[in-house]
Amino acid sequence: xxxxxxxxxxxxxxxxxxxxxxxxxxxxxxTTEMTTKESKNEAKDMSIADAGITAVFGYAVVFSGLLIxxxxxxxxxxxxxxxxxxxxxAKEAESKAAKNTPAxxxxxxxxxxxxxxxxxxxxxxxxxxxxxAIVADKMQKPLNELRFISIKEVK
Amino acid sequence: MDILETLKTLWNDSGxxxxxxxxxxxNLIMIAISCVLLYLGIKKQFEPLLLxxxxxxxxxxxxxxxxxxxxxxxxxxxLWDNFLDHDHPDYHSYGAIMRNGGLLxxxxxxxxxxxxxxxxxxxxxxxxxxxxxxxxxxxxxxGAAAQMGVFLAFFGAVCLGFDGNxxxxxxxxxxxxxxxxxxxxxxxxxxxxxxxxxxxxxxxALIPMIQPPIMRLLTTEKERKVKMEQSRMVSKTEKILxxxxxxxxxxLLLPSTAPLVGCLMLGNxxxxxxxxxxxxxxxxxxLMNIVTVFLGISVGATTVASRFLSLETIKIIVLGLTxxxxxxxxxxxxxxxxxxxxxxxxxxxxxxxxxxxxxxxxRVSQMEGQKANPSNFLLMHAMGPxxxxxxxxxxxxxxxxxxxx
Lengths: 155, 405
Hints:
heterodimer, A: 155 residues, two-stranded antiparallel ribbon, two-stranded parallel ribbon, 12% strand, disordered N terminus, B: 405 residues, mainly alpha, 73% helix
């Protein structure tokens, strides 16, 4: 390419801190300007039909994306469910085997009053059970070693 | 010293004088609007963490911004116009903003570069338990259905004469996700950021008023009374794998969602993996608060009177409300379909929670369900579609970004 016969323009893009010099031939510059103008016009001139198609297509993309994600989650869920089922079966087999073996000589006695003796005042059973579980968790003690005397709703 | 001349100069330089010349009255209106927003944020507690910041940003910018030449302005609209002008030497030059900008210009760089919305998403991910969604993956369909408003509002905006980029930015209000709306608008149509952010956050705060009438209209008493079975327990391993799977899958599908979905899932992984509690705590609290401060005030700064007070803003507010309503309708309709297909095991009210305003939309489903049947507990069931909506709106934003950028 003979430089003497070619007109070159230098276009500066960006501020002083990020200056990039781009050498463009007249032809390239024209094309760039046209593309910029075209893209600006494109943003302004979206027809209603195009908008309708884009909206339907977009909704379909969101739907299909999440649908595929749902299938993936079902698959991983199934793997974990199968794993859990196996572990449960193994645990059951273990506990059955333990039942068949003779029991230890003396079982540790339960704390008196830990079950069945708690007095409930305006508190449903479910909520009482939840409260007892939370207290046991907070105190980091097994539930059967705690003695609940009464649970009363403060009004 | 000429006292009279000095007084005259002081008067001419003051904001009070500026109110009386060159459309300065518009700034007065914006100051009144910012006071109304402050009232809504503080007294009515409408999304106060963001709305108070946005309102005060609006107040500050309209107190200090009267003309592009004003050196004291905290925010310079002309600098950002140059930033977006292909033919200007300062096109996409953050250096020019740093050199010539005010405080709010510099803070706004975080919005323009998409940093704040992504960091907010990181915090949201760290605060969100995706367990209800993992245990019931069909919730994802409700999250997808509730993006209907996004695309209907987009279509409506084009019909009303907005260009594609503006229509996409307006439509995303229907996703009921503030950071996503800000992210997409800052990329596609930054000029509309102020009205879109204000509309998005205001409607999110108004969900308890917008959704219930639509929910009652589209569902029968019998449907609302449905009690749903308890979902299965989700193991820790599943919770750890979930963010990795979603990030892999969604980002590969739509790379433009990477900043939002990537940050959302990274935050969630920090929460669930159990070995990064310090990071999870920081992202949920300290980082989230810091970013909220910057985001609120800099979004408020875009509400310069000369831009904000226009017919476009009114159209955006109307379209935003339409988007919210139709997103609710979309979720409810698919909820009703699920009710039919499962033989009445799914309460369609959880469909409206598919709009991603977490956890407000799920709470509304719970409240409506309990009104119909006091022993109904829909909250955890509604949390599934609710968090699915976050992913859905990020995918919708990614699609619109891919089409219009």
